[in-house]
Amino acid sequence: MRIRDTGDLWWKSAVIYCLDVETYMDWNDDGIGDLPGLVQRIDHLAELGVTCLWLMPFYPTADRDDGYDITDYLGVDPRLGDAGDLVELIRTANDRGIRVIADLVVNHTSDRHPWFRSARRSPDSPYRDWYVWRQDAPPDTSDQVVFPDKEDGIWTYDEQAQAWYRHRFYKHQPDLNTANPQVRDAIAKTIGYWAQMGLDGFRVDAVPFFLADAANTQGDDIDHPHEFLQQLRAFLSRRTGDSILMGEVNLPYDQQRLFFGDHTGDGDHEGAELNLQFDFVLMQQMYLALARHDAGPIADTLRARPVIPSDAQWATFVRNHDELTLDKLSDDERQEVFDAFGPEPEHQLFDRGLRRRLPPMLEGDPRRVRMVYSLLFSLPGTPVLFYGEEIGMGENLAAEGRLAVRTPMQWTSGKNGGFSRAAPSRLSGPVPDGPYAPAHVNVSDQRRDPDSLLNFVQKLARRYRESPELGWTERAEILDQPHPSVLAHRSTWQDASMVALHNLGPEAVRVPLHLPDTDEGWRLIDLLQDDEHVPSSTGRVEIELEGYGYRWLRLASPGSRRLL
Asked: Using an 8 Å Cβ cutoff, are 338 and 353 in contact?
C-alpha cells in the first residue's frame, strides 16, 4: 500500500468540516461569531481530526440570505473581522495540519452589489451585460424557482432599469451572465485573489446554474458550458497546484459524471473539472433506508455509482447547511421519510426536504446516531461534517426556514452555550432549547466524557484517516448476506481491505460472510472495539451484530505490518 500517494490527492481521504463564522464563536461579545473567535477554536477541530475547514460565505453581504447575497467578492464582512484576521485563521489552521476552503458563490450577486447598481441605472452601463435581462414580459416560470415558498417566478421587473432581470434564487439575487467574458474574468480574479491569500480551494455553489449561460451568446469564446469549468480548474491548478473545487451538483449520477470532466462515461479524464462532488443521491437513499430499516436502497445506490476519474472523489454527508433535500426520491418515498423523521409541517421545507438535524430525527437514540456516523465514515468517499454534528446538536424550529439548523455552536452549558456573552436578543441566531439545549449538549462536557459522541466521532475520523482504502477504493463491493437490515460492504485499495457492517434495524443478527481470498492465518481486526475474528480455511466467518450495531473489520494477512 503506497501511503505516500494519499498526500498527492489529499482530498480523497480528507475529513471536511463546514461552519459559518457568524454562528461559531463570538470573541468580541457583540452577538456575532467572528474570525478571532474561530481561531480560538481551531484546536477543537484539530483534536476532532478535521483536515479541511470549509468556510461558508464570509464576504461583505446585504445579509438577506445568510451571506449568500454578496456585495463584494474581494472583501471580508466587517462584522466577522478583516482580511488580516482571515490570514491569521489560515495560518493557524495550516499549523494544525488543516487546509481551508471557502464558498464560491458566482451564480448571482446581491442586488446591492456595485455591479448591479450600475447595471440597472442605464442600458449603456459597462455592467449592464454582466446580468441577464429581457425587455418582454416573461412566461410563467413558477416551476423553475428554487424557493417556491418565497418566489413565484425567476424574472422580476426593475423599474429603474425598465427591464426584467433573471434570478433563479431570490429576487434580491440577480443572476450573473457567465456568457460574458468580463464576468468570467472577474470570477477568475476572485479565485486567484483568495488562492493568493492562502485558501486551498472552494466549495462551488449551485454549479449547474452558473454554467447554464456560459455558452449562450452567439460567437462567444466558450463553445460548451463545461469548458468554463475546465478553465477555472486549470487556472486554479496553475496558481496553487493542489487546490480543489468541490461542487454542489444535485443531479442524477449520469449528469454528475459530466461535472467530473468525464464526457464519455468510461471514468477517464477528458478535461479536469470538479475534484469532488456531493453525493446527494446516496444521502437521500440513506434516509430512505433508515426510515425502512432496510439497507437495500444504500446497497443499490453504491452499486449504481458511476466510475469516476482516479483523482476525483465523492463527498459524502449526513446533512449540510441547507434543507435536507429529498428531491431525488419519488413522492411516495419522500413521504416515507417525512413520516419517519419529519411528520409535522414545521419540520418540512419547500415540500422537498427537512429542516432538522439527525439526533432529533432519530429521537435521540444514541445507538442509531452512532451507527449513522459510523456508516458515513465507512462509505467510499470523503466525509463532510456540518458544525455541531460531532456533539449531536439539534435544531431550533423557531428560526426561519433553513436557519433552523444554523444555530450558534454549543461550547459549554453556560449562557448562550458559551458562544457569546452578549444578550440572547443580540445573537446571530436562537440557541436550541429542550433536550438539545446547551445544558445537555455541549463540547466542554463531552470532551471530559470518554463515552461521548464527540469522542466517538474523533475515533471515527482517526480510523478513517488510517484506512485509505475507504477513500481510494474505486467502488464498494456489496457482500452477500441474508439480512435486509444489514449493509455489508468491502473497500479495497492495493493490498489494503476493510469490511464494514451496519445494522439499520433494532434486532440483533448474526451475519455470515464469505471472503474467498482469505485463508489460513488471516484475521479480521475490529477497528472500533477490542475484538477480532478468524475466518475458516474456506474464508467463512460469522459476526454478531446488535441492533443498530456496526463493525469496521480490517483484513490482516499473515505477516502484515500495518498497525492494527
From this structure: no
pLDDT at 215 over 90: no
User: Is 205 one of the annotated active-site residues of the chain?
Assistant: yes
The backbone torsions φ and ψ at residue 143, rounded to the nearest 5 degrees and listed phi first, read -85, 0
Indicate the CATH number for domain 114-166.
3.90.400.10
CA–CA dist 406, 91 (Å, integer): 26
Strands 509-514 and 540-545: antiparallel
Query: What band does 376 get if pLDDT is binned at 50, 70 and 90?
Result: very high
Cα-based distances in Å from 141 to 61, 145, 152, 194, 353: 27, 7, 7, 36, 21
Taking only the tens place, the pLDDT of each residue in 269-325 is 656 899 999 999 999 999 999 999 999 999 999 999 999 999 999 999 999 999 999
Per the residue annotation, which of 111, 205, 279, 333 is the catalytic one? 205
Select from 3.40.50.1100, 1.20.1600.10, 3.40.50.300, 2.60.40.1180 the CATH code of 475-556: 2.60.40.1180
Residue 238 DSSP SS3: helix
Which has more confidence, 559 or 81?
A: 81
The two domains 114-166 and 475-556 share their CATH topology (first three levels equal):
no
Reply yes or no on whether the pLDDT at 11 is more than 90. yes
* Long-range contacts, 75-84 (Cβ 8 Å, 24+): 76/35, 79/22, 79/30, 79/32, 79/34, 80/21, 80/22, 80/32, 80/33, 80/34, 80/35, 81/34, 81/35, 81/36, 83/197
Cell of 156: 422580476
Catalytic residue among 85, 111, 175, 248: 248
- Average pLDDT score over residue span 459-474: 96
* % residues pLDDT > 90 (the chain): 91
Set of cell numbers at residue 407 = 444555530
Domain ranges in the chain are 114-166, 475-556
How far apart CA 20 and CA 85 sit, in angstroms, is 15
Can 333 be counted among the known catalytic residues? no
- Dump the DSSP string for 147-174: -TTT-S-SEEEETTTTEEEE-SS-TTSP
End-to-end CA distance of the chain: 15
Which helix or strand (DSSP H or E) is residue 554 part of?
Answer: strand 550-556
